């Protein structure tokens, strides 16, 4: 367990999938390597330094961070080049590991894959090491990884090709939009490890977790299903608590059970900067 990790809440012993949540604490070798050589090769370089308004796109932050999004929420910026090798990985491997996203979703995914395992949504997976670890620890789940940053997705696809746990599907898709059109009660877990923090006050409206997101997750989760958010920004943790508190169908889990998961690339940066890690878990009534 990383020194500064402050586990505020932990998953229940059972979920709609009927088993314990993901296991595996400690910096994965790939993450340690990334961390050692800097984050420039990943999706996360400078992620905690969001763009100045007007420079990279015209998004007006919502005046009320909990207000429902109008015309979608811009929760990230696309940056960096995708190298030829990464484009090749996307071209060659995405067809093999892609998660169908047609409506009605996830019925379309199930029928295309002929897979009836409980579905766990991993949002903003970066380069996806924690996704693969989750899938490996929970072969009873079908883990759907969503990411908008193509180099990160390419890295995940390379890892899946090298060692496929057999239960990961990947999509380059906006998680906010997908959660909103998910069929009711169709998911057993929704996880966001280190969503873009958008720490500046004027960017708070870009945060993934808002009241509309909490309501959509509550719709999408089956009873007993879980929402798990981890962050290295105290202010984001407070924000997430207050946004989800407005959703009566999601109940905060508390207790002394720890949240087991690998340390992610982005988390390692937060730890190095001395930030406290908070894991928050809510269960669907
Ligand atoms: C701060 S990074 C964290 C990555 C990884 N979870 C980790 O802990 O290392 C946040 C990630 O969320 C992705 N992201 C942001 N908004 C998203 C959205 N609406 N849909 C899918 N991914 C998104 C970003 O591209 C970025 O890679």
Describe this structure in words.
With 285 residues, the chain is of the alpha/beta class. It folds into two domains: 1-61, no CATH class; 70-284, Rossmann fold, CATH 3.40.50.150. It is built from nine helices and eight strands. The chain has helices spanning 29-36, 84-97, 107-113, 129-137, 150-162, 175-180, 211-220, 234-245, 265-272; strands spanning 5-7, 119-123, 142-146, 168-171, 187-193, 221-231, 250-252, 277-284. Strands 1, 2, 3, 4, 5, 6, 7 and 8 form an eight-stranded mixed beta sheet that branches. The longest helix has 14 residues, at 84-97. The radius of gyration is 17 Å and the shape is globular. It binds S-adenosylmethionine (SAM). S-adenosylmethionine is lined by residues 43-44, 47, 75-76, 123-126, 146-149, 152, 174-176, 193-196, 208, 264-267. Residues 43-44, 47, 75-76, 123-126, 146-149, 152, 174-176, 193-196, 208, 264-267 line the site of S-adenosylmethionine (SAM).
Note the run of SSEs as H and E: EHHHEHEHEHEHEHEHE
CA(first)-CA(last) distance: 29 Å
What CATH calls the topology of the largest domain is: Rossmann fold
Strand content: 15-25%
CATH architecture type of the largest domain: 3-Layer(aba) Sandwich
Structural class: alpha/beta
- Would you identify the CATH H-level superfamily of the largest domain? Vaccinia Virus protein VP39
Strand runs, count: 8
- Give the C-level CATH assignment of the largest domain: Alpha Beta
| Main β sheet profile | 8 strands, mixed
Our count of helices gives: 9
């Amino acid at each position: 367990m990383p020194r500064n990790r402050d586990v505020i809440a932990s998953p229940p012993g059972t979920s709609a999938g009927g088993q314990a949540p993901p296991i595996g604490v400690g910096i994965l070798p790939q993450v340690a390597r990334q961390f050692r050589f800097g984050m420039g090769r990943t999706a996360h370089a400078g992620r905690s330094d969001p763009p100045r308004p007007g420079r990279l796109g015209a998004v007006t932050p919502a005046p009320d961070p909990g207000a429902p999004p109008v015309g979608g929420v811009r929760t990230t910026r696309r940056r960096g080049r995708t190298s030829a090798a990464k484009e090749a990985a996307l071209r060659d491997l995405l067809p093999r590991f892609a998660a169908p996203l047609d409506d009605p979703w996830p019925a379309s995914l199930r029928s295309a894959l002929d897979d009836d395992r409980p579905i766990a949504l991993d949002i903003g997976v970066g380069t996806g090491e924690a996704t693969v670890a989750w899938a490996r620890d929970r072969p009873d789940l079908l883990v759907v990884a969503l990411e908008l940053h193509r180099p990160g997705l390419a890295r995940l696809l390379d890892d899946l090709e090298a060692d496929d746990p057999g239960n990961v599907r990947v999509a380059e898709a906006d998680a906010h939009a997908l959660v909103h059109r998910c069929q009711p009660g169709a998911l057993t877990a929704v996880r966001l490890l280190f969503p873009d923090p958008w720490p500046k006050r004027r960017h708070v409206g870009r945060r993934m977790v808002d009241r509309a997101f909490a309501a959509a997750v509550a719709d999408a989760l089956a009873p007993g299903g879980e929402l798990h958010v981890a962050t290295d920004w105290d202010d984001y943790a407070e924000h997430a608590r207050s946004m989800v508190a407005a959703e009566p169908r999601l109940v905060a889990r508390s207790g002394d059970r720890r949240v087991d998961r690998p340390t992610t690339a982005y988390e390692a940066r937060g730890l190095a900067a001395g930030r406290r890690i908070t894991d928050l878990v809510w269960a669907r009534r």
